[in-house]
Structure formats: C-alpha cells, structure tokens
Amino acid sequence: MAFHAFPGYFPGGFIGVDIFFVISGFLISSILFDSLKKGSFNVLDFYKRRIKRIFPALLCVLLSCYLFSWFVLFPDEFARLGKHMAAGAAFVSNIVLLYESGYFDTSAQTKPLLHLWSLGIEEQFYIFWPFLLWVFWKARFNVFVCAAVLALVSFALNLAGVRDAQTTTFYSPLTRFWELLAGGLLAYVHHGQAGTPLKARSICPAFFNSEHFVRFVFSSPQVKNMQAALGSLLMAGGFVVISEHKAFPGWLALLPVLGTVLIISAGRAAWINRVLLSNRLLVWVGLISFPLYLWHWPLLSFLHILNAGNGMWRLLAVVLAGVLAWLTYVFVERPLRFARHGRLALLLCVLMSGMFFVGLVTEKGDGFESRATIRGFNAARASLSWPGHNNFEATCIKRFKGSGYCTLAKDAPATVALIGDSQANHFFPGLAAQYLDVGENLVNLGCGACPPLIGTTSRYRGKTPIAMQTMDLVVDMVVKDPGIHTVILAANWHLYLQGTRFSDESKTWPLWEIRSTDAPLVENNNAVFAIQMAKTVEKLQEAGKKLIVIKQIPELNYLPSICLPPRPFSLAARNPQCLTPVARVDRYLDQYKSSFDSFFNKRPNIIVWDPKPTLCDGQFCRSMKGGDTLYRDELHLSEFGSIEVGKGLSGNLSRSDPGK
C-alpha cells in the first residue's frame, strides 16, 4: 500500500488492490471449502467472523478521520468526507466514487477515504459468494467449472468496458469479481487432504490421469520455483508497466492477478516463498496488512490537504501508518476479532450504523459551517464560492425549457445568449453586468461538460455520452427567438479538441472524447470540432445571429485556496504569489489553438475574444487581485474573477452592433 506514497517510483502502485483481491479470494474461499467439506458451513457464522474481522479497525479509522477533519476541513470538504464516511460504513464507496468521477471531480488526493472503494467491492463479493458456493456444493455441481464460468464472464465484462467505460469498469464489482474468483479457484484446486488437490480430476479427468504427472505438477520443487519466479516477474512488471495513464484494468490486470496466483500456488516449496516472503518483517507486515491498508491513504491524503506533499513528509506518513496499524492490530483488531462475546457482532453493526448516520448528517448539514475551529477561515474562503446565479431562473425555464443552465440578467426578453459549458457559465456574472450597462439582457444557456456544438456527443472517459440533446435544443431555441441578435459561444476548448486538462499534460491518451452523430466514423476530436462547429456557426448565422467566441481561460496548476490564509494545522505557509508561468500556460494552450485559430481565421465575421490578457501579464498568470481570488478552482473563475474578466470585454459591446 505504501507504493501510493511514491508514485514517481512505482507508477503502478495501485495494483496492490488487485493483489489483495486474489489473496482475499484465496484465503476466504479456503475457509469456506473447509467448512463445506466438514459439513459445518453456517452463513450466519461466516458473516459474524467477517464483521469481527473488518469492523473494529474500520470503525477506528473512520472515527479518527472524522475527528481530525472536524478541526481541519472546510465545510465543503467536510461534507464530502461525511458522504464518503457513510459510503464506507455501508461498503458502497466504489458506487459513490463511480458517480463522482469525471470532469468536475475533486482530485483523488483530497479524498481521505477514497481507498475504501476496494473494501466495498470485496464485501459486495462476499454477500453472494458463500451462498453460491453452498448451492454449487449441495447440488453437486462441478464447483471449479461454475466458478470459472463466473470469472470468465466478469473478465469479459472488464475487457468490454475498459475502452469506452473505463471509470465504470474500474469501480464496478461485476468487472472486478474475476480477481477474487481467481483466488477462489486457486483455493478449490489446492484445498484437500494430504496435499492432494480437492476433486482435481473432476476438473479435467484426462489431464489428471497420470498420478506421476499430478505429483510432478503439484509437488516438484523445480516447478514451484519456476512458478514463484514467473509470478514475481509478472507482479514486478505490473508495478513498472501499469500506470494511471494506461487503460486499466483490462488485459493489464492479468499481470498482478496471474502473478499472485502463481506465487500463492507455488507454496512453501518455492525458495522465494520459503525464504524471502516468509522472513519475519514480511510476516509482521502481513499481520498488520488490513489496518495498514486502512491507515495509509488517509494519512497521505491529509498531508496533501495540508500542503505537505514532499518526499520526506510522505516517508514519515508511511512510517506513521505502520505504527498506527500495529497499535490498531494489537489493541483493537486482535482483541475483538477473537473475543467470544455473543453479541459483539451485533454491537459492531450498531456502531457502524452510527458512523453511517453521522456521515449522512454531516453531508446534509453542509459540513457544519458553524464549527468554531473553522469559522474564522470561512470568510477568507467566501470568494471561492459560486452562488450559482439562479436569478430569474423560473422565468428563464419557461422560455428556454430543457437547458441545464438557465439564468437571465433581468426579468425581460433576452437579446444576447451565452451558450456553452461550465466555462461559459462562469462568464455570466461579468458579461451580464456589461450587457446591462448597454441596455441588453443576457441569457445563460447550456450544461456542464457540454461543448456548444450541435449534433455532438461528449464523454469523459468511462462515462455515459452527454450533451447532444441539450445543446441541439438550446441552439434551436436561440435560432427561433427573434429577440436574440447576438450569440456568445464559450467552453473549455482545449478539453474538447485535445481531450486533456492542464493537470493531465503527461497523459498520452485523451480523457475526453467528442463524437459527431452526423459523421460517426470520424473519431479525432479536432476533426469532429471542425465539422460540428461549422454546422453550428452556419445554423446561427443563417438565422441572422452575430457571433462572439470566447477562448478558454488559462488553467492553474494549483488550487487557489492555497493563496488564502492557511487552514488550521497547515504544514505549509501561505503562497504569497500564486502565479503560474505564462510560458507553461502558453505551452498548454498552444496545443488546441492551431485547430481553433485555423477555423475562425477563415471566418473574419466572427469575433474571437481572448480573456488571457486580463488574467496574465508578460511573465505570469495570476489567481489573485488585491486580496480577492480571481478563480474558485483550477479551471473556473470566481464571481469576482468573472466581473474582472467581463470588464475586458466591455469594449466589444454596443447596442447597435454587439459584435464590434
């Protein structure tokens, strides 16, 4: 688990989860096979043991994270932690994170309970697996074949989804169960009397016909050493080859899964297992592995939140995780796990339910803004909030029903329409004020993550396609409205053309894809943009609309919250400058500008306005002006920033000819 602390050295450190799934499937399935064979299988006893194994350490970590967060996290952060705590207590973290992931998702490093997604998948597996095994066993089905079919179906779903629905594939239990079943299949093969594989011949009688062959395969030291060596190479290759930039799980997940299966199946006869993996230090780590898993990520996440992410702090966090894991094992996990109190499991369930409701109340209470520990810092963070600008929303919806964003500068017919995604939305306060000054009324239409292109679907990698119906409907409504004479298009153009964000510079594959419904065979984002933007522009201009296109704002490489007074217990001083070098910003923006500029340079009747000069000088792009923040996050302007940027466009506005 500590590999997460040093991503630069172990890019595939997160495959520790896949290794954990196989080991868990092997150990738990071995217990189940043993009880089935002895005729002592009792599903209630199984779940009691699981509760006593999992709940004590998990309750300890959840409570500790909550108490620490009470003093450290701001209201929005604390509300999110409450939601994740409730999800962790209910073992559905993977489902909650699946619906959070995407374009607007908060950085994974700021989610202290992110790692509980894997525990959720494991426990979801154990809801069904004991019952299925019992049914297979009692019905005298071939357990190996039944489990293998389930594993193959799960693996096939994983392969089918990893390209077009990677996020769903990563978090879905259905596409991860094959990893736990791999351990279960191994347990079936290896479980038996005197080392003889349980019903091994029933798997394939012809294959196991020779007793000499069976002894060689299952007992030969040479084969065992080869298995362990190959397994180690596969696992090592996984840590090096796999990274967050690769499509995962997919085929790549076979590296850690097969590697783990080979190492476990090699047993003590293999030198690697007998000498290296059986030394006292690794055995001790194995004993505390579950609490170590629970502690390591919250510590690393809180370090990031407190602005202390350098290598020394990370190393100290890993050491502290080991100490806390040992203390949890000795004083919490072991005493309660082996306690014989008859109602302990029920008590633990009650306590876990309490954690669930505390998390839920924290989320519904918006992170308890009145906390004394944080109250003094909320005022400084007020400029990071976004009021939503729902002014005259009811009136707007009546006139433009179907738009995600629907706001008016004043309660009157619109004369200018701002169309686009969240980057269009963040321009609204500033533009609305400027248009009101010249007697115009601005309406804001569109939806989050929707490029202002008709006939287009937009999709974050692994998510369901969005935007086509909304944006087509918005453009149609604007075209049919004779009172609207000017249309402004704004969006995160780089995302839709290049498929990446500023923070994704190192990624070699697009995170975002746009597709044309008119030309479905065109899969290049730049080509789709050229085709669909031409159709959008043509449709608007044929309706007599004047067009203004706003380029995207420079993105930041830090959260603007670090420019404010540091939070309680912050381990880093306030950033006094909060500057991003223009050279870096230009390097990023230039990636999309060639396609963007070549399109609009051929259409001089369209005004293209760049907000960058308002936010940047010759050397730096800034996120602060005076004591106020211009941004509310890395990608979006604050209300103050919107007003400032809007002033830069004021020279382009006039009642007689808004496009000049």
Descriptive overview:
The protein is of the alpha/beta class and 660 residues long. The protein is elongated, with a radius of gyration of 29 Å. The chain has a six-stranded mixed sheet, sandwiched between helices. The protein has helices at 16-38, 43-72, 75-89, 93-100, 116-138, 143-161, 166-171, 177-190, 200-203, 211-219, 221-241, 254-266, 271-276, 280-287, 289-305, 311-337, 344-364, 372-381, 393-399, 422-425, 428-437, 468-480, 493-498, 525-542, 582-601, 612-615, 639-649; strands spanning 405-408, 416-420, 442-446, 456-460, 486-490, 512-516, 546-550, 579-581, 607-609, 620-622, 624-625, 628-629. Helix 2 (43-72) packs parallel to helix 15 (289-305). Residues 1-9, 193-201, 207-211 and 654-660 have low confidence and may be disordered. The chain starts with 15 loop residues before the first helix and ends in an 11-residue tail after the last helix.
Largest sheet: 6 strands, mixed
**Proportion of helical residues:** 55-70%
Approximate strand percentage = 5-15%
What's the arrangement of strands in the largest beta sheet? 1-3-2-5-7-9
Oligomer designation? single chain
Number of separate structural domains: 2
Strand count: 12
Which secondary structure elements does this structure contain, and how are they paired or packed?
Layout lengths: L15 H23 L4 H30 L2 H15 L3 H8 L15 H23 L4 H19 L4 H6 L5 H14 L9 H4 L7 H9 L1 H21 L12 H13 L4 H6 L3 H8 L1 H17 L5 H27 L6 H21 L7 H10 L11 H7 L5 E4 L7 E5 L1 H4 L2 H10 L4 E5 L9 E5 L7 H13 L5 E5 L2 H6 L13 E5 L8 H18 L3 E5 L28 E3 H20 L5 E3 L2 H4 L4 E3 L1 E2 L2 E2 L9 H11 L11
Parallel strand pairs: 2-3, 2-5, 5-7, 7-9
Antiparallel strand pairs: 1-3, 4-6, 8-10, 11-12
